[in-house]
Known about the structure:
By secondary structure, the protein is an alpha/beta fold. The chain has helices spanning 15-29, 115-121, 136-139, 146-163, 169-184, 202-213, 229-232, 236-241, 243-251, 260-267, 286-302, 322-336; strands at residues 42-50, 53-63, 66-74, 84-90, 125-129, 190-200, 217-223, 272-277, 309-314.
Amino acid sequence: MFRDVVTPDMTAEDWPELRRKVYKRVMRSMGTAPDIKIAPWYEIIEEYENYGLHHLKIRYRVLPEENGLAVIVLPKKVNKTHPVPAVLCCHGSDVKNGKYNVLSTEHKGLAYRAYAIDLAERGFVTVSADLYGFGELLTQGDKNSAANIDHRYEESAKNFYKNNPCWSLNGRMVWDHQRLLDVLQTIDYIRPEKFGIIGTSLGGLTAYYVSALDERVFASVPIMGFDTAIIRAYYDVSVKLQPQIRAHCLKNHGEIPCDVQDMIALNAPRPLFNIDSYNDHCNYYFSAIFQCCAKGQHVYKLLGKPECFCTLMHGDGHGMLDDTREYAYRWLERWLK
């Protein structure tokens, strides 16, 4: 059912050319991004203390007429003479709160998502941005009912495709994070050569794509972020995020342009820790993830780095408890420090 990325007769010398083909196939499934260069620019618009950590809220350029919003959390004793690694913390489908979903410890148990705080306490600079159409970028700071927020989100998606008919929302989310990486590489207290990324649900999907398509991300932890393209081709939410997948399937007799194994392969040999659940209500077809992980892992083995790919399946539903979260944090510490 799922395409092999590499075959037994291939060698490591064959991979660079094959990787270029996989990369092009994935990029086509994202649509066409603007053919423009954006010079790195940001400004600090607010500074505050929370959880004993210093927070910087920034506005950064993503397109000539558009800015993104993000919060940088600084660990203790960070400065330009001792730069530390930075980890992008991607929020899930919390339309109202956006980036603050990973900046608050108020939720407990499976709903806990405060990666930006936990990792800053462990010595990382963390950076959490609003995904396109989420958080303050959508609400503009207004107090809105849930119905009004959902309406705004739907209108935002419609307007995006009206103005960008050949692009995708997934493509835009990757683009915005790449512009954020451009900015982070100019900050003197951040090590510019190795970034990490972590996220759950929609944040996990974003983490998968950003790490696969931008090699500045060295270590990644996508958490319950990927159902297979076979499912996404007919899943309304996913079609909205990436309509090119369904369009390709309908045009090519059901052929899938790319799938989870291709995203894993594009990460190789950089460290990737995939966390999933076999009772996730957002992805019932968990056995397909196993198949894709096995096919993607062959690339790590081909490149002599089998230790750089790991997958963990748990039974805690659409979230993580403390013990699983500890594995995620230690993976980033293992490879970035």
